[in-house]
Write a structure and sequence with these properties.
By secondary structure, this protein is mostly helical. It has two domains: 234 residues, no CATH class; 192 residues, no CATH class. The chain is 85% helix and 0% strand. It is built from 16 helices and no strands. Helix 3 packs parallel to helix 5, helix 3 crosses helix 8 and helix 6 packs antiparallel against helix 7. The protein is globular. The model has no long low-confidence stretch (mean pLDDT 79).
Length: 494
């Protein structure tokens, strides 16, 4: 577990650095208008992610379960089923891309851009989606085997290559088709890497039509149906915002919001790796009937997630504006406030997301999926309403408010009751040990912002980040040492 989290964080740290340098380069190279069109097209293409139908989580969960039990027949039946479903989904994605490409002239958002280029970009992104669908089966196998280090390693190599190719070949003229081509070629290479590693790590793996089984299909659909609802909800929450802004406020308003959203994603993704690993680990622990270990896993993982998400929120509150101005330059005055609003929701969503992932890993997907879908619908309606009165700020609040209400009000208490963990134990083991380190970080950030207000340089921001991490580590370590010494003294006295 620690090795997988460590490997995921290392790769994500590298991806974060790449993204930080790549995103402003692309924006300045293409311009806000053309970049807004790229973001809008990608948001439309991201709806093709619904073609995963929830089977991505299914294969990860069931591979973890059946590999731990040594049931290779069931494992191959599930893997073959998902492969052929995703192959059909790839055909649908390509067909949908052709239809959208034919309708390009009827969309007003890109009437000032080359219709031919937009059509080629859409077709290329459709091909990219189809390739990713089929290849994701083998990435799911690696995650089910808990070889996140290998899966992340392939992703890291692709990220580095993408950075080099975009920097070398990107030009303003036909820039969108260049980016789309680079993404598809690297998606193909990435998924071939997953395929080779999956067969190497699991020689028993076999993808064949003869493995297709109606009973397995019914079993997987009962789980995947709810996982699919979660995918729909995630799409509504994190991708529809950009579409709402583009339709209601226009393409010029997209970039400012998307910078905040993208930065929030950069900060959120390494913490989400904990949830991804917890899901497959929960399935393995369930198959080995280790309920006590599962409860310990939840309390520790949720506590660490709370520490990291709240720590990032504190840092963003004090230094988010300096970070954005250093990163993107001047001209994005709304973005720091948007980042804070979005991060408020993540302080709740990320810790509770660990509980949600464990419930999915245990096969209890119904309640989390239905609540997530209700949360997404409220998010969409609230964003559409508030956007009329508050602009992009209304869209951000429309995202964060439902997260806080639904996650804290329903998922947390109901999920803890299902796992048989009293909320007082979660509070005692998952929150209390991290309050003192967070207090230390808050004092550090407040004093630094008060006495050294100018942080508009990368050396200053990197130093602040390292200092904040050191404060968290020192206070947390001192607290653990004190608790251990107290336990030793109590044991000696007894």
């Amino acid at each position: 577990m620690k090795w997988n989290v460590g490997a995921s964080w290392f790769v994500h740290a590298a991806s974060l650095v790449i993204g930080f340098f790549l995103m402003p380069f692309v924006i300045h190279k293409l311009g806000d208008g053309q970049y807004g069109v790229w973001v809008f097209i990608n948001c439309l293409a991201s709806y093709a992610g619904l073609l995963y139908l929830g089977f991505g989580q299914t294969i990860s969960c069931y591979v973890a379960k059946y590999s731990a039990a040594g049931d290779w027949k069931k494992l191959n039946e599930v893997s073959s089923l998902v492969f052929y479903i995703y192959a059909a989904g790839g055909v649908i994605a390509l067909t949908g891309a052709c239809v959208i490409a034919a309708l390009v002239p009827y969309f007003s958002i890109w009437k000032t851009h080359s219709v031919l280029e937009i059509r080629l970009v859409i077709l290329m992104l459709g091909l990219n989606v189809a390739t990713g669908l089929v290849g994701s089966v083998f990435g799911g196998v690696l995650m089910g085997l808990r070889r996140f280090d290998l899966e992340r390693g392939v992703s890291f190599a692709v990220d580095i290559t993408r950075l080099i190719l975009i920097v070398v070949f990107l030009q303003r003229e036909w820039g969108l088709i260049v980016i789309a081509t680079i993404y598809w070629v690297l998606t193909l290479i990435e998924n071939l890497g997953y395929l080779l590693l999956a067969y190497r790590q699991l020689p028993q793996l076999s993808i064949r039509r003869s493995h297709l089984n109606w009973e397995v299909f019914r079993e997987c659909c009962s789980f995947s149906g709810y996982a699919f609802l979660s995918s729909v909800a995630q799409q509504l929450i994190y991708a529809t915002d950009t579409v709402v802004i583009g339709v209601v406020l226009g393409e010029s308003a997209i970039t400012s919001y998307f910078i905040a959203l993208r930065l929030c994603q950069f900060l959120r993704q390494p913490i989400e790796k904990i949830s991804h690993i917890c899901m497959s680990t929960a399935g393995a622990l369930q198959s080995q009937v280790l309920a006590a270990n599962l409860r310990d896993l939840l309390c520790k993982a949720l506590g660490v997630t709370f520490l990291l998400s709240t720590g990032i929120f504190i840092g963003a509150s004090y230094f988010g504006k300096a970070l954005i101005e250093t990163w993107m330059g001047a001209g994005y005055e709304q973005t720091p406030s948007l980042l804070i609003i979005l991060m408020i929701g993540q302080v709740v969503a990320l810790p509770v997301g660990v509980l949600r992932a464990i419930l999915f890993g245990l096969g209890q997907a119904r309640l989390p999926a239905l609540v997530y879908l209700a949360e997404a619908i409220v998010n969409l309606v609230l964003s559409l309403i508030l956007a009329q009165y508050m602009g992009v700020y209304g869209v951000a609040w429309g995202t964060s408010i439902p997260i806080i209400v639904f996650e804290l009000g329903i998922i947390l208490p109901v999920g803890m009751r299902y796992l048989g963990i009293p909320l007082i134990r979660l509070f005692r083991e998952g929150f209390v040990p991290y309050l003192l380190p967070l207090l230390g970080l808050w004092v550090y950030s407040d004093q630094l912002a008060t006495y050294y207000p100018d942080h508009h340089s990368w050396p200053a921001l990197i130093g602040i980040t390292c200092g904040g991490g050191a404060v968290l580590g020192i206070v947390w370590g001192a607290q653990l040492l004190l608790e251990r010494l107290t336990s030793v003294r109590s044991a000696s006295a007894t």
